[in-house]
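Sequence and fold
=================
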Amino acid sequence: MKKFLKIFGIIILVLVAALVLTPIIFEDQIESEIKKVINKNVNATVDWNELDLSLFRSFPDASVQLTDLKVINKAPFDGDTLVNSEQINLNLGILQLFKSDPIKIDNFSLDGALINIKVNEDGAANYDIAKETTEQPKEEVNEESGGMQLALQSYKINNSTIIYDDKSAKTYLKLNDFNHHGSGDLEANKTTLETQTNSLVTFVFDEVEYLSDNSIDLAADLEIDFDQMKFSFLENKAMINQLPLNFEGYVQIFDDYQDIDVSFSMPTSSFKNFLGLVPKTYAGNLEGVDTSGDFELNGSIKGRVDDENIPKINIKGYSENAKVKYADLPKSIDNIHVNVEIINDSGKVEDTYIDVKQFAFNIAQDYFKGQLKVTDLMNDMIVDFDVDGNINLANIKQAYPVDIEQDLNGHLKAELAGRANVEQVSQENYNNLNINGHLSLDNFNYVDEAFPHELKLSQIAIRFNKNQIQLENLDIKTGQSDLNAKGELKNLMAFVFSDGVLKGNFNAQSNNFVVSDFLVEETEEEQNETSKEEETDQPKTTNQGQTAFKVPDFLDIVLNFDAKKVQYDNLNLDNVKGALSIRNEAVNLEKINARIFGGNIMLDGLVSTKSNKPQFDVKLDLDLIDIQNTFKDLHLLQNVAPIAEALTGQMNLKIDFSGLINKDLSLDFSSLAGQVAADVLNAEVHTEQSKLISGISNRLENVNLGNKKLKDLSAMLEFNDGKIKTKPFDFNIEDIQVNVQGEQGFDKSINYNLDLDIPAKYLGDKLGGQLANLSGQELKDFKIDLPISLSGQYNSPKINLNMKTAINDLKNKIVEEQKGKLKDKAEDKIKDFLNDKLNNKKDSTQTEQDSVKTKQKEETKDKIKGALEGLFGKKEKDEKENKEKDEN
């Protein structure tokens, strides 16, 4: 007995040692075998992070575990991932490790995998990675050559994603959160496979999404005949969203086609099953929902599938006089009628159609009823429809769980019937669009962060007549503005259904229109994206990250308008008429006429918001405008001609300029370029209104510029790069002539030279009379030329009266005039003297003549000097003192 136990113990130890040592001994062999098989048969890059062989993990089977398996395609899908799996487990019999026969896989599991199947436009598939081999006759195949075979008894796919993207068939299928397992003897010729599947399914065909993360649960038993390649459904139950289905039938695969015969029906006829067709996101939780009435759904799919044929389809759903009441909502949906069919009688794909013979419901007093038929699904899809409804939109949320942020309100009325070719509509071809009827929405309020105020739509009424659409009425209010418009709409269907551009021609009226009430704000994120795209073109003055207004990019309209009052920034216009076109995120202004500043304005130009900061290029023609009102409200005039603040009266302005607009609608003055032509028709100077004018007037002492009439002023100003250059021009302040030239900046810096011709009468009666006597002129004709230079800032100017130049010019002028007079007098005396003493007193006469000239010249200089010192002595002293103050 002891000997037996000893032998038994030795055997156990040997077996345990074998179980421990076998993975170590054979792990390299298994990995080598797997790589050998892969390299021999696969045209792709296959790699994994780790291979682990264990005899304990799935005892009594051996277990091979691959971690981080990747299968990367080669051309024509070079670099695409076909498979990326966190972990794969393969189980096989332990004894197979000690044989040279092909290794048979008993079961496998796939965890956390992405299976990405692609088919390109040419029909090439990325899963077709098997290498082409030269087939040998069966009897010549070496069974001893090793390899790997599937002899599955079970398999699992857990927490995986499967994508099938077929560009050639315009088909996209995604199985997300895919879990599936099956069990059965798949090595047998005939077996029963028990499966369980659950997943979220998204299905898109020809750019139309039919399923979007719809939940599917499927418990299916399949009878599989591998010899006949026939798969028959035994006991099968499915749950699509919240809709239960039973189905039966088979699918048989032949070399050139497949034969399908499948039918399905609902196990119960409750109307709640109809709601199950709707994704849970939209239908809400059906627990606790009170329903009445029946809903029946059944169908069959039967026939041949090949390159030219599809199975015949007959699917019908029907309900009559049903009702739905959600427990947490106050209203119910009553009198529900549904009659829908999906039919294909020919087996040709183009003959498939969807026919909604009836769909109707009531919510309180509201009603909706309609019919819809969709034909030629695969080619030029045709939609025929007929709808009639009268619905208070607020009632929808009170009866159905609509999850949208926008508050539903307003009253919708629709009486529409027509036919539409979907392909032609998407291409903006409306020649064959045939829609007739009327659509209106009343008392609708819309709130959006992009708009500064709530939009209150009193009414929008649209009339459809074949392919023409008329806007019968649009009545809207927002902020302080109101707008009424009528006209023709174009591209409405593309705008509503495919983010197309809304086009049209309209006539609009408004009692009060505030431009900022209708400007759509651009978010910081959108603006930053724009700034990145246009980084090379962005002006230096643009502020990054600020929010600017945007002209909507979905508009292409022409608007003829007549507004009693319009407010733009701080400008108020009356009786505004003209036209504007809106397209490409820009507004083009054409012949805008209005009353402003007590006069008239005509405006043409363009405002574009395509770039990060809005740009404009505008021409303004202002006639007979009040100078003070214009200066107060027109910021451009305040910066270009600040001296206008000291004037009252009327003027004409012509402004042609371009630049950038800030987010508060003000101008970015550093970006401006253009010119201003100004004509002052009649004006009066008020020195107290301007530090510059009052400063000049005070320095002139005896010359008071205040309350004097300004006339004959025509000036041309040009500005660019923040500088305003003034072309030389002349004007009169009553009888004072002024010449101006120089430049200034938008920062109010000035650099001007003025030249004043001042009548002597402003110098005082006594002094003026003395000068007049000296010159022999009438006082009114005597003028002094006085140069003045201006620098510094406009509100704190430095004024330099060039006295020395004025004195010297005046001296020279009078001296020359006196010299001429003395010469004339001397000549007269000489003639008289010569007549008396022609021959005797020639020498003495010449001496007397020179003496007289010299004496009168000296007397004249002394008198001029005394007069000028009396006039300018105090001014030179003042200038000296002022200069010393400035230097200190």
About this structure: The first strand starts at residue 44 and ends at 47. Residues 525 and 545 are 8 Å apart (CA to CA).
